[in-house]
């Protein structure tokens, strides 16, 4: 869709080291310019070096989670105010790994998205069904429920989020949703956004789940797929850059 600029976001998860990050970021910076928006979401301790390395480029950066609280006695948590100080443009919220391993509820994810927007940070809100839910025919109901909580909590700001559809069964498994399967869900999400905000047609809906250089093009040419959230393939500059090129 020509109306929307594509966005490719690398989700490094709990990977990295000073040495590996420097190499990876240099590889991305050197490969510019891209014909799409590009960002990396890095572990908290690496935000500082990422900000320094990317500051002079148009590559954006962000975090992989945030607290829903402004500040206070929340040991181990990181506030959106802190992310703001490190120049974060994005924060991933509601990744399926956080929902599954940290018990994050739809409402908590919505509260985190709201906190991010309050500091001018764009939340990348992840939704997606498990294999069991897909096989039970519940895909639509699950993603709609997950997105609905965020839409209601954000209210008139709903048009400012980025949505990422990430089928849980496709994350880190090497099993990708077919372009048709992904597009079908993206169309459902777009329709839900249209009912909530006049900005729905400008909003970026990313696909995530085993996106690789060899399947990126066909996914990104679907009508309602506006880029990708990339896990494993975001850890190698060559692969990540190839995916960015596929989007541009
Ligand atoms: C992710 O975790 O956001 C993801 C899409 O991972 P992968 O690309 O490795 O499936």
Q: At the third CATH level, what is the topology name? A: TIM Barrel
What is the CATH class name? Answer: Alpha Beta
Please state the structural category: alpha/beta
Based on the structure given, which CATH architecture is correct?
Alpha-Beta Barrel
Assembly state of the chains shown? single chain
CATH superfamily: Aldolase class I
The gross shape turns out to be globular
Q: How many whole angstroms does the radius of gyration measure?
A: 17 Å
**Residue share in helix:** 40-55%
GO molecular function: triose-phosphate isomerase activity
Family: Belongs to the triosephosphate isomerase family.
Subcellular location: Cytoplasm
Main location: cytoplasm
Characterization of this structure:
With 248 residues, the protein is an alpha/beta fold. The chain has one domain: Aldolase class I (TIM Barrel, Alpha-Beta Barrel). The protein is built from 10 helices and 8 strands. It has helices spanning 18-30, 47-54, 80-85, 96-101, 106-118, 131-135, 139-154, 179-194, 213-220, 237-247, and strands at residues 7-11, 37-41, 60-63, 90-93, 122-127, 162-165, 205-208, 227-230. An 8-stranded parallel β-barrel has the order 1-2-3-4-5-6-7-8, surrounded by 6 helices. Helix 9 links the parallel strand 7 and strand 8. Helix 1 packs parallel to helix 2 (47-54), helix 5 packs parallel to helix 7 and helix 7 runs parallel beside helix 8. The longest helix is centred in the middle third of the chain and has 16 residues, at 139-154. The chain is globular. The model has no long low-confidence stretch (mean pLDDT 97). Phosphoenolpyruvate (PEP) is lined by residues 11, 166, 171-172, 208-211, 229-233. Involved in the gluconeogenesis. Catalyzes stereospecifically the conversion of dihydroxyacetone phosphate (DHAP) to D-glyceraldehyde-3-phosphate (G3P). Pathway: Carbohydrate biosynthesis; gluconeogenesis; Carbohydrate degradation; glycolysis; D-glyceraldehyde 3-phosphate from glycerone phosphate: step 1/1; Carbohydrate metabolism; erythritol degradation. InterPro entries: Aldolase_TIM (IPR013785), TIM_sf (IPR035990), TrioseP_Isoase_bac/euk (IPR022896), Triosephosphate_isomerase (IPR000652), Triosephosphate_isomerase_AS (IPR020861). Homodimer. This is Triosephosphate isomerase.
